Amino acid sequence: MDRFLIRGGKPLHGDIVIGGAKNAALAIMPCALLTSETLSLKNMPQIVDIKTMCDLIHQHGLDITIDDKDPHHYSFKGDITNTEAPYNIVSKMRASVLVLGPLLARCGKAKVSLPGGCAIGTRPVNLHLDALTALGAEIEIDGGYINATAPKGLTGTRFVFPFVSVGATENTVMAATLAKGRTELLNAAREPEICDLVDCLIAMGAKIQGRGTSHLIIDGVDALHGAEHSILFDRIECGTYACAAGITGGELRLIGAKTEYLGSVMHALEECGVEVFQEENAIRVRRTGSLRGIDIMTEAYPGFPTDMQAQFMALLSISEGASMITETIFENRFMHVPELNRMGARINVHGSSAIIRGVHSLSGAPVMATDLRASFSLILAGLAAAGETSLNRVYHLDRGYEAVEKKLAACGASIERIKS
């Protein structure tokens, strides 16, 4: 397995291009299953999870081409020849379950393996299945597979999500676009990535009202057509590199990012002493003084995102005073704490909360990544630490961040990928 070797203590200065949002792209790619015409997607991130979703969609029968002149431009076209999403692909990535709704809506049947992904919690798919059942699907779980059929087709309904679920909202919205009649979804997730999905579906001919709200209204159509869509910038990648500027005491321009989608993350950065400025086509982030301890609670959008929790924990580990981070989304997302403590952090976990007592400095050490976002929290710690940090299992990182070592090295970081 590859690892990163990081020699810390260097403030970062320079420009970093923020790519397309992983969480938006993975939700939008299955839209290609809703039409036989070409779906053209620009600003696609070049990461492992995108390749995994391409493998999944291709085995359903679609052809995928990547523009020779622009490797971030993908085109999807073809007819569905296979309605089974196999374990060997789905087990690699939880977002694979998002083919369920489109396959069911378009073909009236789907067999999808129960999903895998990062080991950060159980993340059951029951809400996906409950919502699709309300649309008229008949669903059974057998041998680790979801067997779904819609013998009479899908029919519009009114469904209230008992709690906010991004994935279940995405799956249900895609399925409802081809259902007969009107579907109303209440307590739907409002993440910017869902707005991006809705924008793509509307470009394909879907009729959807309520974009950006928790009340979505979808009037089913007979068919969707091809479209061209550019993926939203990745607000999590943006927030992650903002933390890199903060923890190293540097200054970065994050090209292509906008503060309008950063909300709670931007406020948290400013509260702990990191300045954030919107420029014409970039966000400028810098730290000029000491970091201050703050309290954070992860919540559904527009609250603080769980995908930024680990990065902020690294940032707060060298802040003045005490901080507390409470995780309300996933029950197993503090696995990076022992690794940060190996580097000299003082973090104690009590149930769903972590108490961080800021230290003056961190020390380089051999550490191991446990999941995607935890991987970058350890990079951040390594960038700020005295001495050398060896980060193992960086394959987690490759699932969601593009060209990490190149982007950081171009801004002055001493980071090297050591091939296994």
UniProtKB/TrEMBL annotation:
Task: Locate the coiled-coil region(s) and give their ranges.
Answer: none
User: Any idea which residues bear 2-(S-cysteinyl)pyruvic acid O-phosphothioketal here?
Assistant: C118
Q: Name one GO biological process term.
A: cell division
Q: Does the keyword Plastid apply?
A: no
Q: Which residues take part in binding phosphoenolpyruvate?
A: K22, N23
Q: Which SUPFAM superfamilies match?
A: EPT/RTPC-like
Q: Which UniProt keywords apply?
A: Cell cycle, Cell division, Cell shape, Cell wall biogenesis/degradation, Cytoplasm, Peptidoglycan synthesis, Pyruvate, Transferase
What highest taxon heads this organism's lineage?
A: Bacteria
The question of whether Transferase is a record keyword is answered with yes
- Record-annotated residues binding UDP-N-acetyl-alpha-D-glucosamine? R94, D307, I329
* HAMAP family, per database record: MurA
Q: What is this protein called?
A: UDP-N-acetylglucosamine 1-carboxyvinyltransferase
